[in-house]
Amino acid sequence: MEPLNNNTGQAGPPAGQPPKKVVALRTGMRRKKRARVIWSRVIILVLFMLMFASVFVVNSEIFEIKRIDVNGCERVSEDRVLLASGVRTGENMLAFRAGRVKAAIGDIPLVRGVSLKRKLPSRILITISERQPYAYVRSKKVFYMIDSEQVVLEISDVARSSSLRMISSNAVEPAEVGRRLEFPYDSLMISFFDKAEPALGSLMTSAHFNKNGLKLYMNNGAYVLLGNGDRLGEKLDHIPLLVRSLENAGVPYEGLNLRNLEAATFIKKKTAEAAIKE
Q1: Is there a contact between 14 and 2 (Cβ–Cβ < 8 Å)?
Q2: Which residues, 6+ apart, have CB-to-CB distance to 112 below 8 Å?
Q3: Which of 67, 138, 144, 203 is the most buried (most CB within 10 A)?
Q4: Where are the alpha helices (DSSP H) in the chain?
Q5: CA distance linking residue 255 with residue 68, whole number of Å
Q6: How far apart are CA 78 and CA 96, in angstroms?
Q7: What is the pLDDT of residues 8-63, one digit of tens each?
Q8: Closest Cα partner for 208 from 192, 194, 230, 197?
C-alpha cells in the first residue's frame, strides 16, 4: 500500500523516491543543458566556417584589384593620390580599410575631400575634390595663393593669375603650402569680397588688410579707408556715390575716409607743386 499524503490523504510516491514534479523539473533542466551544448557547438561551427570563408575570400583571385581609377585631379597628380592611398593592384579589394585610405589621401594639403568606392569584383574608384584658388595675398615680394579657407595652395614671387582677388598686408604670418595663412582682419575676407564685388564691380582693384583696418584701392588710383569692418555694407554702397559726386564737382582726391560713416571725408590730391613745397 502507498503512503497517504499528509495534506490531501492521497497516495504519494513510494518511500525514498522524489515526487513526480521534481522528476519532471530535473528532466527539463537536463534537456535545456543538452540544447545549450548543441547550440554552442553549432555556433562554433558557424564561426569556423565564416573564418574559413573570409580567409578564402581574402586570398581569392576573384577579388584581386586589377584597376584603380582616380578622378578630380587638377593641381594634385594622380600618382601622388595613389602613393598616399597605399592601395596597389594585385591586392584583395576587401582587405583594406576604406576609412584609413581616405584619411591618408585627405592629408595631402591641396585635397579638400575624398570618396572611395569598391566596384566589384576588381575595380577601385577614388574621387577627390581639390581646394580652389580664391585670392592672392601679397606680403612684400611673396605672393600666397589661398583658397576660401585661407589654406595656402601656392607660393611664388609673382601673381600667376590675373583673375584672382588681390589682397595685400603688412602683417602676414608666413605659412607653408597646405597651412592656413593668417593676416589682420582675415575673418572678414569672405564677407568683404561678397559685399565689395557687387557694390563696386571693376571700380575696386585690390584690398589691403592691415592692423589699422581695411583699405581698398580703386582703378582711378585712389584708396578708401574702411576702418575695422563695422557697417561694411553701408560704407561700400556709399563709395560709388561719393566718387561720382567728387568727379562731377571736379575735385581732385587721392582717398576717401569712411572709418566714420557719419563724418565721411576725402583726402585732397596733392599737386606736384604742393608736394615739392612739403
Answers
A1: yes
A2: 128, 129, 130, 131, 147
A3: 144
A4: 20-58, 78-85, 98-106, 189-200, 232-249, 272-277
A5: 58
A6: 20
A7: 555 555 655 666 665 566 666 777 777 777 777 777 767 756 665 555 555 557 77
A8: 192
Q: Do 172 and 140 touch, CB atoms closer than 8 A?
A: no
Domains of the chain (ranges; CATH) run 61-130 (3.10.20.310), 135-277 (3.40.50)
Task: Read off the C-alpha cell for 119.
Answer: 566596384
pLDDT value for 274? 44
Cell reading at 252: 581732385
* pLDDT, tens only, 114-170: 999 998 888 999 999 999 999 999 999 999 999 999 999 999 999 988 899 999 998
DSSP states of 211-273 as a string? TTEEEEEETTS-EEEEETSTTHHHHHHHHHHHHHHHHHHT--EEEEE-SSGGG-EEEEPPPHH
Tell me how many helices (H) and strands (E) the chain has: 6, 12
